[in-house]
C-alpha cells in the first residue's frame, strides 16, 4: 500500500476555500473542502481544503492572491 501525503490548508471563509479548490482543479489536482468542526478564534467561518502534497498548492495560492490562515502536512 502506498501512503499519500496530504496538506490541509485553513481558510477564514468558504469563498477563499472554493476559489482555491477551483484553481487546484484547473491545474489537474484534486481537492476536498470541509467545514472545520471547532474553528479557533481568528479563523472566521473555519473551512479547510485537503490536497495531495505533490501539488505546489501554497505557491498557487500566493500567485493567485488567495488568503489562507495556515497549513499542515498529514
Question: Your description of this structure?
Answer:
The chain starts with 5 loop residues before the first strand and ends with a strand. It has 74 residues and is α+β, with helices and mostly antiparallel strands. The protein is built from 2 helices and 4 strands; from the N terminus they run βαββαβ. It has a 4-stranded antiparallel beta sheet, with helices on one face. 22% of the residues are buried. The model has no long low-confidence stretch (mean pLDDT 85). It has a single domain (6-73), classed as 2-Layer Sandwich (Alpha-Beta Plaits).
SSE map:
Elements: E1 6-11, H1 14-26, E2 31-35, E3 47-52, H2 57-63, E4 70-73
Antiparallel strand pairs: 1-3, 1-4, 2-3
Summarize the helix and strand pattern as letters.
EHEEHE
Overall number of domains: 1
- Detail the poorly predicted runs: none
Biggest sheet strand order reads 2-3-1-4
CATH class: Alpha Beta
* SS element count, helices: 2
The coarse silhouette is globular
Measured by DSSP, the beta-strand proportion falls in 25-35%
Q: Largest sheet at a glance?
A: 4 strands, antiparallel
Task: State the helicity in percent bands.
Answer: 25-40%
Question: How does the helix and strand content classify structurally?
Answer: alpha+beta
What distance separates the N and C termini? Answer: 17 Å
Describe the structure using short key phrases.
single chain, 74 residues, alpha+beta, Alpha-Beta Plaits, four-stranded antiparallel sheet, 4 strands
Amino acid at each position: 500500500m502506498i501512503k499519500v501525503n496530504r496538506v490541509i490548508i485553513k481558510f477564514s471563509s468558504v469563498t477563499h476555500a472554493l476559489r482555491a479548490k477551483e484553481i487546484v482543479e484547473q491545474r489537474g489536482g484534486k481537492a476536498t473542502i470541509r467545514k472545520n468542526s471547532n474553528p479557533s478564534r481568528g479563523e472566521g467561518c473555519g473551512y479547510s481544503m485537503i490536497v495531495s502534497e505533490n501539488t505546489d498548492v501554497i505557491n498557487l495560492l500566493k500567485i493567485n492572491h488567495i488568503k489562507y490562515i495556515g497549513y499542515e502536512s498529514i
